[in-house]
Give the backbone structure.
Amino acid sequence: MIGATNNHMATREVMQSSIDDHSFHLVPQPDWSMPRDSEHVVQFYEADTFLLDMLSDYVGTGLAAGAGCLVVATKAHHVELDERLQAAGIDLLTARASGQYVALDAAETLATFMVAGSPDSRRFATVIGGIIAQVAHGRGAVRIFGEMVGLLWLEGQYDAAIQLEALWNVLHATQAFALFCAYPIHSFGGDALSQRLGDVCAAHARVIPAESYTALTDADERLRAIIQLQQKARSLEAEIAERQAAEASLRTVKDRLEVQVADLRHLHELSIRLTGTLDIETVLHEVLAAALTVHGTNMGLLSLCDPQRQGLKLHVSQGFDAPFLAQVASVPAGGGACGTCYERRRRVVVEDVEVDPIFAPYRQSVRLAGFRAVHSTPLMARNGTIIGVLSVHFRQPHRPSERETRLIDLYAQMAADAIENAQLYQNAQDAIQVRDHFLSIAAHELKTPLTSLIGTAQLLQRRIERDGIVTGAGAKAMHVIVAQAKRLNKMILSLLDVSRIDTGRLTIERTPVDLSVLVRRVVEETQATLDKHTVECRLPSEPLLIEGDDVRLEQVVQNLISNAIKYSPNGGPIAVQAEQQGHQARLLVRDCGMGIPKNDQPHLFQRFYRATNADTQHMSGMGIGLYVVKEIVTLHGGTVAVESCEGAGSTFTVCLPLQPEAQAGIVAERSDMLGNPTHSLKAS
Ligand code: ADP
């Protein structure tokens, strides 16, 4: 025997010696010295060395017996096989040269007949049949080792491997050769491949188990091995069954969890949408749509309690026609599922309207509407009162699942909260509107008598001063009357401005205005009335021309200066500065007064807003002035901003666009002064 390992030889010797032993059939190990000429054998193997030992024995004995040998193997196996054959004294060079031994690379040979992932029968017959014919020429027998099926198997191309086995069998019908195939047993791991293993075995005339079985020398040992393998197979089957059961229950849990996650996501999305709106109609639409989605239906109603009478008023609906909606537009207590839910203050489930007594009076109309089941849930306010009813309808008889009931309760709670919030907001808006309306009317009504009061008081004051009728305390009292009446008038005018802004009636009349002149005038008028404060004024020598409303801009300057004075209760300097900055006129009013807390600063220009320190220090005011200032400045295309540090004073800055001609002047000046950056800018 050529090239067999000691171990293998020992195995074969035992086999030979027990050839007559009735247990031989338990060890179907081939004896390559006596090959059956046209046999298709498959050998499973665990270790490469075992395969190579078998292979070298197969090829070695074949060559020694004068048979032609064709080996289609991997490169690595060829190298090892050559070494083993040469070590066994085989003259490979001569065998190759004479064509007795043909060695082909498995991957390359496969490529010659594989088409679109499958072996092509014609190409296979041509390529492999041709080679076999050459090897067989002039020789008695041919031995072939084929590893191409093994390669396909390792790549997971199971169908292609089985097809290739079948093609070998087809070739067998016309050509005589012994064919030895090999598959690594580890490539059959997994339950899914047990059927495939059967296919591979069926494709072969003889099947030889892997070496851990065939290497056993004792018949009794082999029988024990079979028992152990059977037991292993059983326990594996049991394990597989257990695993499959566990997988099935995991899948069920996973599916349930996925549904819960989806439900939570829907709830979350709804809550985001609901917190994003305070409009009741939007809230109701969102809630109904979400509830219908969860129930997998497209019919539903959402009604709110009718404050006028005991019953419900329909607000939003989906899936019903106009005649039915007209019938449920207003539902009395106890009417249908909604009315019964309203009356009982709890959930009402009507699984089948055809049999439920609740619907006895309405069968005909619900048939026309096209629903068979209803699920009505009360919407309860935080104080426990009912505010509405959410109903979902189904086209077929339906019993709500635990999940549906749980979800609809949540949706109903969210809806009730959102509706309550929206109602509170609506009430607040209504109250604000009433307040604004009242303020506007009150201001209008107060303005006329006050104007006449001021006029008369001033007339009287002038007469008194001229005629000297009243002096001292009386004259002073007269002065106080006029001053306070003027103050009152100012407040009323501010309120009227607010009303104008709210109704979009505050307008400006543009004429060319020199901001410098305007500021100087206001400062001079103010200075005359001050004792504790000083007002410093810095103005450019050139005019600051803007297209603006003289009266309204004066109001802006007056407001900022009087605030600076008012909120510097300990006196101190006020700085007023107007200047040109680029295309803009900039006005700064700076004081060293009480300043404004950081948190209040972003809100200062809102209607009725007053900084917290103004209230705590009992400074009187209505929080209107800056609101009006901002509106006037905005109407002029400008901006107003504040910088302040509490306790250290504030600076208000107003920027207004310069008149276009003034801007054109700047551009002209700029181009003139190129190359002379220190030249001062001059507005025309
Ligand atoms: P009012 O002065 O009547 O309250 P305003 O709209 O003119 O209303 O001003 C809004 C608020 O801004 C004031 O209540 C005050 O808290 C704050 N404020 C305005 N100007 C100043 C200032 N120069 N210094 C400190 N606080 C100011």
In short: DSSP finds 22 helices and 21 strands in the chain. The first strand starts at residue 40 and ends at 45. Confidence is low (pLDDT under 50) at residues 1-24, 667-684.
